[in-house]
Amino acid sequence: MDKTAIVILNYNGVDYLKRFLPKVVTNSANCQIAVIDNNSDDASVALLKNNYPDVQLISLNKNYGFSGGYNKGLAYVQADNYILLNSDVEVTPGWAVQMIRFMRSHPEVAICQPKILSLQHKTQFDYAGAAGGYLDILGYPFCRGRIFNYLEKDYGQYDDNRIIFWAGGACFFIRSSIFKELGGFDEEFFAHMEEIDLCWRSHRAGYQTAYVGNSHIYHLRGGTLNDSNPFKTYLNFRNGLQLLLKNCSIQDLIWKLPVRMVLDLVASIRFLIQGSLSHFLAVLRAELMFLWTFPQTLKRRGEFKAPYRVKLFKVVLAWEYFIKGKRTFRLLRGSD
After folding, report:
1. What DSSP element (H or E) covers 213?
2. Three-class SS state of 104
3. Which of 163, 196, 202 is nearest to 183 (CA)?
């Protein structure tokens, strides 16, 4: 029987561990549980040592971010499958079992995610992952259940199993052998969109990513890095451009990259009009840093040898959302 490890990355999250870890332990029978600590200076390590002796503790010597933290910590976790779980997630009975069963019966699938609902509003989908992720033709991410900042209510419309493009990092199930084959997360991303990059590389390598609708969890949005933080804006915009440069074909990059950079600048002006100078500057910094590190990103692109398969959603999401007023996934052309 294959072994599944639930692996939580922690950085100064003692309050989240106190709040959410008990349910992970209670609701995750037959799974190994591990916590990778990114050199916290709060009481996280003491809490784990004193209260959770059966939880594997992996202590790193500094904060390596989401990407580096998982890459380094998972080297110490012996399992056939990893469930990478945010520390700010409330799990439900049977959540892991359903994904394990699905993956056992679908060997062609490398990665999957459950239904991800909002902890603050439990009848509503969560921003990060919702009911499975996609990219529009320009590489902008969206989900079933979430387009831009519009979040649908959950009334069972996505209670299916479905092949998707990317799985949300809040709860990310991946076969350990494929994680290693793909080289793990790109550590230059640090945090945000690294899971999309990994799913895209997995797709290019010939594997599939899936959504498992009969498993669900609740995610505390902004728990690890709040939306109001300009650093989050910087990472999202910079990493979005790196995502394209690494995974698109040359013929697509020639037109998509300039269009994306212009649209990102439009978004920065929108921030400025709204009075968010720090977010305006974060977008400008993201574009400048992307250009500055262009050669290094090209090098990382060349290190991964796989076809540039095109499976992006053939819509321009901004046009559909802002001009046509389409707020839900089912209204988008090609959603069936």
Report:
1. strand 208-219
2. helix
3. 202
